[in-house]
Input
Amino acid sequence: AEIDPAVVFDMGGKFDKSFNEGVFNGVEKFKKETGISYREFEVTNETQREQALRRMAQRGADPVVGVGFAQAPAIEKVAKEFPDTRFAIIDAVVDLPNVRSVVFKEHEGSFLVGMIAALKSESGKVGFVGGMDIPLIRKFACGYEQGAKHVNGSAEVLQNMTGTTPAAWNDPTRGSELAKSQFGRGVDVVYAAAGGTGIGVYQTAKDSGKLAIGVDSNQNHLQPGTMLTSMLKRVDVAAYNAFKDANDGNWSAGIQVLGLAEDGVGWALDENNKDLISADIMAAVEAASADIVAGKLSVHDYMSDNSCTY
Amino acid sequence: MSDPRPRQQDGADRPASEAQSPPAIELRDIDKSFGPVRANKNVCLSVRPGAIHGIIGENGAGKSTLMSILYGFYEADRGEILIGGKQTRIRSSRDAIAAGIGMVHQHFMLVDNMSVVENIMLGAESGAILTSSVAAARAELERLERDYNLDVDPDALAGELPVGQQQRVEILKALYRGAEILILDEPTGVLTPQETEQLFRILDSLRKQGVTIVLITHKLREIMAVTDDVSVMRGGEMIAHRSTAETSKEELAELMVGRKVLLSIDKQAPQAGATVLAVEDLSFVDRAGVPRVDKVSFAVRAGEIVGIAGVSGNGQSELLELLSGIKPITSGGFSLMGERFSAGRSLDPAAMRDLKVAHVPEDRLRSGLVRTFAAEESAILGYHRDPAYTGRIFMDRDAIQQDCARKMADFDVRPQNPNLKTANFSGGNQQKLVLAREISRDPRLLLVGQPTRGVDIGAIEFIHRNIVSMRDAGSAVLLVSVELDEIMSLSDRILVMFEGRIVGEVPAHEANERLLGLMMANAAPERSGVAG
Amino acid sequence: MAAAPGKIPRWVDVALIPLVNIALAFLVSGVILWTIDVNPLTALETILFGAFGYDEAIGYTLYYTTNFVFTGLAVAVAFHAGLFNIGGEGQAYIGGLGVGLGILLMDSSLPFLLILPISILLSAAFGAAWAAIPAYLQAYRGSHIVITTIMFNFIASALMVYLMVNVLIQPGSMSPESREFAPQGQLPFMHEVFGWFGLEVTRSPLNLSVVWAAICCVLVWAFIWRTRWGYEIRTVGANETAGVYAGIDPRRVIVLAMCVSGALAGFVGINEVMGVHHRLLLNFTAGYGFTGIAVSLMGRNHPIGIVLASLLFGMLYQGGAELAFEEPKVTRELVVTIQGLVILFSGALAYMMKRPIERAYLRIAGGFQRPAEQEG
Amino acid sequence: MLFNLLLSVDATFRVATPLILCAMAGLFSERSGVVDIGLEGKMLAAAFAAAAVAAVTGSAWLALAAGMAVSVGLALLHGFACITHRGDQVVSGVAINILVSGLTVVLGIAWFARGGQTPSVSNEARFTPITWPGAEAVADVPIIGPLYSELLSGHNLLVYVAFLIVPLTWWVVYRTRFGLRLRAVGENPNAVDTAGISVSGLRYRAMICCGLLCGIAGTYLSIAQNAAFVRDMTAGQGYIALAAMIFGKWRPVPAMLACLMFGFLDAIAIRLQGVEVPVIGPIPVQLIQALPYVLTVVLLAGFIGRAVAPKASGIPYVKER
Ligand SMILES: Nc1ncnc2c1ncn2[C@@H]1O[C@H](COP(=O)(O)OP(=O)(O)OP(=O)(O)O)[C@@H](O)[C@H]1O
Ligand SMILES: Nc1ncnc2c1ncn2[C@@H]1O[C@H](COP(=O)(O)OP(=O)(O)OP(=O)(O)O)[C@@H](O)[C@H]1O
Ligand SMILES: [Mg+2]
Ligand SMILES: [Mg+2]
Output
């Protein structure tokens, strides 16, 4: 029988240009391939997560994908109520027999783009703009910093956080100001992990003739020539796989940790940025990537000890 | 608005008030309701050109409403308006101004934080950019001031002028717009005798230039002094027209109220007792560093009424506020039944009330009442902490309501409804409510400011009688008023204040208007010196 | 010309006109829905059914209503003192912080019956404290309360992010959330409460704080209209000079009113933190503080009006979510649009239909009478 | 250090521009007696309209016109509710903010299918920085060079417009007939009415001024400072502008200074992030992010006297009680 899949997007909304949109692209791809449509809901406040998940389960949806770490408590509750429904959560771990938890090694992907940034930088200063000062974003920043320092021990990494309210994920104006201030201090490559705020960062990079790095999905097309690359976090694949595995009868619960080795994270190279990435850079990054996969190079995970000491 | 045309040219070649010329104003069957209240019922009025026409009537009789209709501020439900014999539709003040009507409202229509010139040119500017308008307005203002002897500082802020000056600004506003008909709604309610006299001189010279004037007032003396004709309103209806020469105060009073009214009070000689209030070198300096009350000393004894006369703005208001604990003392002090208050000792109105000091404030709406409250709530303002009204947590609604009903009955407050919103009572009745609140608690010292401002004669009579009976019951009364009539008829002793100082004292039986007037202008020969 | 002033019965004013206004809002929303191929009538049905149609729906609607009652009352109390408190959002946030900190400290050692009153006090105290600073600055330093409360909203969110990320987060957790409270630190859900009495009710986030909200309505009503503090607040709000004349210190009244206001806003923390999430987390206020402004003004600053307005908003939140759930074409932004239209028509344009409806009423009522008159 | 300060001042101009425009808009509205907390919504709607038109037509000027037109439309809606129908001004403002926040995204999805964002507009369809003559040449001259080339030169047209709007607003408010009437109607509408001027007419005109200025502010956000519309991109700036206007006591120049102060504090805060203080170590980001707000409160408490609003603001004008 056909499955009846569902996805519950988080507060950013399915068009946040990064995380949720990645999931959206993944499930759209599934829909296009199989012709199976899915239910969806975008939450607008903390309480709706549980409501939406439960409603999906009640309506017989299976599997149900929850997007974002904030949905973890809700999934935990609802998955217990509906032991026969399969759930998947992206970016958090919920230890239940009917839940698949997908987490990413963002630090590995960020490490690679940090290398690219430092290799490309002429000033030796690279920048990072985060949305909000939360652990996930610190994880991105920490990996990025390691990557930059890996290729240039004296590289300077400037960090800025956008704000403290949910508006911080949708404030291109402030993103633009943060980027300008970093450029003013000599930064020439900036990496944004800040949702819609990134739009302002990329635009400013373009206006100032500097380079920017996108996040989550491949954002290279947003400002061709300015986008040095994008750190890919394959939430689209994770969501697609959740649906596909259920459809094909290959469903498995448990934790999936997706890093470079699993192609869960990576960096984007396409016609929009191929002129920016020289063969040397390419070689260095590929080598580091292989080392990380092989375990020869380890990237410190901020989450492992809540600090960025490496 | 085009440039204000000097009016004399029109007036000069027109014979003044001819019998055959059509009335300057004719109102036919004007009807106006505000919701359920019918403020004007088929009112007719005819005003001769070049005459001063008085309109009198109790509070709420509909005078202001009628004039506001003539001025286009309200639109009548029914009726016709003829100006100079020509039927005119007046739907807004703009129409009225175009028809040559100007109005000085009972409550001034000035913008407090704008200068006099700006207030005057508002709506009658000569162009889109002010610079030229200001110049034109100044020139015209100078001319008007010269012609009518109406001087005001054109650059002063309207809100900072004394009321008398504010009124001049209102008159100048009307003249500036070339008014040929001038309506004045209770213009003298806030003026000193000197200011009133001056106003009447101005009205007289306007009349000579051919201006038609409609004058609303509660003061029959003024009607008799300046008007040519008089109309009486009662309960929304126009009930009588008289030629002033052929009527008398008594007749008008009776027409107005519908019963005989005593126009003067007879009171017994005072039985003055122990000193209740002794003020010594009391001073108050305001934030700008101006001494508002300057080393004032006097005493008030139980069973006497001490009146303080003075042109408004000479420190009387501040004196009352000091004595009632609203303003802090700068230096000096006073003792109240032996208890001493001075600069160091912080006062507050609640503590003064506990000492049985009652205070009827000068401006009932600004500080004596809360417009949005039910009457019963306004009737406990200041006494709301009294255990009679409030327990540990909750207020005792029944007690408050009964108390208010009793006060309303005792003081004839109409309508006698404790639940009615305060704003819905007429001025006179609001005043009675305040007085009832303050008097009914047997104060040892009663501070009264302007007790009858804007109140009709029926109510004045009532209020005066109550103040005198307070005195007779042994209270000390300090009365501040700019009405010399009131001061003279109520007080046992009269102090005169000028620029924050007490410049003289006169026993009531020696006082007359001329003497007090001179003292108020600080022009009197030193007579009895400063009271100690 | 103007007919003799006829009597308009009260139900026209309090029931018919608001209904017409809401109908107008839905009419305009209907046009928008129709352009995106959603049947407006079905949509309306979905909203109403989704908000009131079954026990779970009612639970959610009342859960939102609870928040709006708290923030609406908060705005109203300040308003009676003549103060415009835009800071409900921040006060709710900090109130929740107080609850959360308290429970995190107490839940291992104290029983529920002690934790509950302490939590209520803590939420009130923290919310009041967050309102007291702007109040003090307004009363004694002349700072404008609108500016300071706006600023304090931002400061509150910065403080919360700092605490959640650096202090209160569970070690190793991705999510800036505190640990879950122990059971005695959780306010029972209403479905649990009904369960105690043997009634089967579907689960929803509705919890005992709805009862507290109802109590607060009564308390606020009594406080404002039946105590002398309320009397003093209303006096200062309506006429400050009269307040001074009456021996009331306006500065103390300002601080008092804002503290009460902040405390009420802080109770959102009871509902959200202790009642629903059972942990401290970011953004649980979700704009309820701002919506409280509209709730209070639409409810004419009176508890009864505030309850009605809160119900309306609760219905829009819950019914709107159901609409977005049922109709794939309806996005959450469309639901926001509909909410905006409802506030516009039944709040801002509340008087637009008054005249026409009253006139229509008089014509209809008159139409019934006239034939009778002719016969007589 | 000096150069850093210079850059902060430069950023101040950019950040303050929409605040100044909105504060002047609010000033017109509130001076006429209509409280406007819908600045945010008007600005957001204008930002959307401008970005949409710029994306479709490629003309920055058409975009500006569209932004202003939409914003004026909303201002008139506010007027219709508050002036004509005497609705509650705050509720109306809140309604407009919420309505716009939803509607811009709904329309954005319907028209551009990019999740409520508009496509990025090319530089030709934007207001891009203008380099003043000789800016490059003098850039290296000490002091004057950077002052001229960094501070004065190199902003987009709308920044200059905003700073010209301030003296213009001052001139209109204090030196023209309209301004005289505007000030009067906010203080005492009865005085205006009895002077034969229509209170509603005046207030509607003030609303139009307010709408025009918010329109410029929104256009600046989406196609000058940025190059696309992103949902809710105003991020509370309308409220900050409102605060600045009150801070400036409803007067143009002080309000502008308040906006500049806020922009400056913001620019400083951005540059302070990550700075380590000797002994204490790194300051928490959140403390620095809260700094502009904390400093505003402190300044407000310390130096600015009581602000008195136009007396009639917030109260619908009714002649007959
Ligand atoms: N704006 C208004 N709204 C509703 N009712 C009003 C209004 N103005 C006046 N009224 C009603 O009209 C009646 C006449 O009031 P008006 O002010 O004309 O009296 P008045 O003769 O001027 O009294 P006073 O001598 O106290 O000035 C009042 O009884 C009142 O009910
Ligand atoms: N909103 C209202 N509805 C009904 N009647 C009102 C209303 N407002 C005032 N009144 C009535 O208006 C009459 C006069 O009220 P008004 O406001 O004119 O006071 P006032 O006479 O002007 O006072 P003063 O002459 O001292 O200035 C009273 O009879 C009062 O009952
Ligand atoms: Mg009158
Ligand atoms: Mg009157």
